[in-house]
Amino acid sequence: MTAASAIAEGRAVLGIELGSTRIKACLVGDDPNAVIATGSHEWENQLVDGVWTYSLESVESGLQSAYAALVADAQSRHGVAPTAFAALGVSAMMHGYLAFDDAGELLVPFRTWRNTSTGAAAAELTDLFGVNIPQRWSIAHLHQAVLDGEAHVGRVHHLTTLAGYVHERLTGERVLGVGDASGMFPLDAEGSGYDPELVARYDAAVAGSALTGSIIGMLPAVLPAGHEAGRLTAQGAALLDPSGALQPGAVLCPPEGDAGTGMVATNAVAPRTGNVSAGTSIFAMVVLDRPLARVHPELDIVATPAGAPVAMVHCNNGASELAAWVGTYRRFAEIAGAPIGADEAYSLLFAEALDGETDAGGILAYNQVAGEPVAHLSEGRPLIVRTPDSRVTLANVMRAHLYGVFATLSLGMRVLRDEGVEIDRMYAHGGMFRTAGVAQRFLAAALDAPVGVAESASEGGAWGVAVLAAFTARGGGDLAAFLDDEVFAAADSQPVAADQADVAGFAAYLTHYEAGLDVHRRAIEVL
């Protein structure tokens, strides 16, 4: 079976992920491990009236742009453009606040995961529920609006996530996958739905507020991986492809968050496996084989797409500041008469970082563009800090930037180590791992553990949700077995053990980094 015939006969499977900097579309054929076409659209969040947001108009135009690019790629590579799919899946940035009235109108601009304005609500809900409620969760955003007496609260009819919103536009179904739902409201012990006891507690806590009805009626239905979550409607097909070529009828898997699809993309859905996803944000997911001993503010308890409990360390800030500095070096190359592409720039600069001192020569790089709850930072103030006797070389500066991407994550992962959580396999994915052996090596040093990078790493969650859609099309079942037997059986994750010199150097860096967080806090006050 050729890729061309899979596309022409409607057997191909489409995955779409709305990430923080790119909307990406990924097409797989009869073998879900084989990517046969891709397309993408670059976009960026906007800080509007103090709120990090994306407009719904940019969601729609970005979807169409990414899909059109995928169609063009399929035509170029295989001589045929898709007009139908066997299955389709949508993934997107988890959490945040999308609130609609009973007519389906958005009540306030989308408040993304990046906002850190819900501290009072998150703390109150953590005490009420007895589980950690992070600031970015949907229930924290809703409750903060209740506490603040926002005018729209009385009109809230339903909430969803970005993936849930797009899925509803495509199918008419208001549902979420287990993993994405776990970032809206705490799930029950089986991961099959929202915790009814906590629903009752919340309803009692907000009785007398402007909210009308139970919170349970405002949340999307929860579906595990493998379940059919609707079919592509004519309106949904027209949303993706205004040309009219795309036909309705494809089955859709439950919409998932980027954390869940990242776990699928790295085969980290079984107990004692974990993954790290690095992009605009960076987070680690570790599938638990037992409950944690106590509540930790650094750890979210979420779920795999199949409903297994996961400890998540989520940092709001990942590689954005690193990308900004790489951009300055590219501009220097351009004005020097030797312009280079982004991939080449990253490759050269990452390679240079390998020649840096193991502790980055005393240079500290703080990558916080936005607030960072794990580090207890209310706002972002990106900084490069050094003492007068530090060694300023390009190699040390680049190593400091790369260490800075992983520093806050390492602080959160230390809590898991203190809990005695054991990890058998750790995988990484995201664009910064495309340069072989550099970010992977430094992450291994930050975690003091072997780290593998799957061949599919750069495709990320778009491929992961395509795999979930293929899993649904095949009738579901045991997700971990499907991944092991049919997707990753021949995969080479290229594990890299932690270099002990790097481990010691990163530990020294992190000690100074922690102490220097007071400099960052002072910068928030004065800048």
Give a verbal description of the structure.
- The structure is a single chain.
- With 527 residues, the protein is of the alpha/beta class.
- Among the domains are: 95-160 and 185-218, ATPase, nucleotide binding domain (Nucleotidyltransferase, domain 5), CATH 3.30.420.40; 268-453 and 497-527, 2-Layer Sandwich (Nucleotidyltransferase, domain 5).
- The chain is 38% helix and 17% strand.
- It has helices at 3-8, 56-78, 119-129, 138-147, 162-171, 178-181, 196-205, 234-240, 258-265, 320-335, 342-353, 394-418, 439-447, 460-473, 479-487, 500-526; strands at 13-18, 22-28, 35-42, 46-48, 51-53, 87-92, 98-100, 158-160, 175-177, 221-223, 251-252, 256-257, 273-278, 282-287, 300-303, 309-315, 363-366, 383-386, 425-429, 452-453.
- The strands form six sheets. Strands 1, 2, 3, 6, 11 and 12 form a six-stranded mixed β-sheet that branches.
- A hairpin with a 3-residue loop joins strand 13 (273-278) and strand 14 (282-287).
- Helix 3 (119-129) crosses helix 4, helix 11 (342-353) crosses helix 12 and helix 12 (394-418) crosses helix 16 (500-526).
- It is globular.
- The chain starts with a helix and ends with a helix.
- Residues 275-472 form the Carbohydrate kinase FGGY C-terminal domain.
- Pfam families: FGGY_C, FGGY_N.
- Residues 13-239 form the Carbohydrate kinase FGGY N-terminal domain.
